[in-house]
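Quick one before lunch.
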Amino acid sequence: MTKLSNRVLEMEESVTLAASARAAALKAEGRDILSLTLGEPDFVTPKNIQDAAIKSIQNGKASFYTAASGLPELKDAINVYMTKFYGYSVARNQIVVGSGAKFILYAFFATVINPGDEVIIPTPCWVSYVDQVKMVDGVPVTVQTVESNDFKVTVEQLEAARTDKTKAILLNSPSNPTGMIYSRDELQAIGEWAVEHDILILADDIYGRLVYNGNEFTAISSLSEAIRKQTVVVNGVSKTFSMTGWRMGFAVGEPEIISGMAKIISQTTSNLAAVTQYASIEALTGDQSSIEEMRQAFEERLNTIYPLLCEVPGFEVVKPQGAFYLFPNVKKAMEMKGFNDVNDFTNALLEEAEVALVTGAGFGAPENVRLSYATDLDTLKEAVRRIKAFMEA
Ligand code: PMP
Ligand code: GLU
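Model of the 4'-deoxy-4'-aminopyridoxal-5'-phosphate complex:
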């Protein structure tokens, strides 16, 4: 008999991490694989942030445990950041810091979900939300959004999905995988709906500063006092500051939920590595010029690679507004090459074109594939050239 819990038996491994590991394994075997799998900036963490980390090690500060929910100085830095980019300030008891936004999301679900509680998740969505809700015995209620509405959920759709068990709704704007951004009006309508029905809003704003071509990010929590009280913001330094390996995420919300999340952290991971906390203070409050340089590099990549991808036979692509993903619909491409399953199509691209993408299936989108453009332009251009050659063969 299996020794595994039903929880683990029912879980999927992270599709993004699995795709990236598979590409790395093939590369290690000597294959010339171009990997556009991971949403991970390819830049080295800016020097001022590295220096702050090194200093904290050398002056002995990084040697010790910190408060489980994060250093008070880091919470103050998060407050400075919130004031600057969200337009409102928060107290220390409204902030919790943890080991990556991914674990912060899990801590949120573990804090608010009782068995059977429902979380509305508009899809296509990032690969970890659904499994995390299941891990705490919640029920993920996925709502399929349509490409003609830029993959954005409407209040009508939310209302149709609402039951007396609905506890929270998840919003991720700019979105992984679609790159779409909700407008102020759309967010206002969703926020008012959530307030009216006392449904928590989990706002995963991790791509909020990665927006391009004049598009703007609006934080739902900044729209009104009532909406803010209903919202828990999740954010982190991984994407904006090119710090995926450092593993810092944080949440901002009402003290009751935040202290619940702090309890989860105190009984699981304890504090986020102290060295990362010191580095994050510098990231959030130090010189921001390198951040803008990285944003501009992503913008240039998007503007270069998008028209090339549009030329690939059978690929239909909506131009993303933020994050660093392209999410083409490949239904026609699959028909042209005789595939009915996007996983098989993605595997064929890997085996024959030696380009690793992530299957849309993991995002709840069986007609799409995801390309991350968080990699250098030469690799991107060559990858699209190979995909095109594969389609034209
Ligand atoms: N949310 C979204 C939408 C993401 O794409 C990611 C990717 N890593 C995360 C959260 C988690 O980020 P991290 O754990 O690196 O802070
Ligand atoms: N979020 C990134 C991605 O979607 C990193 C991998 C992960 O955590 O899923 O590729």
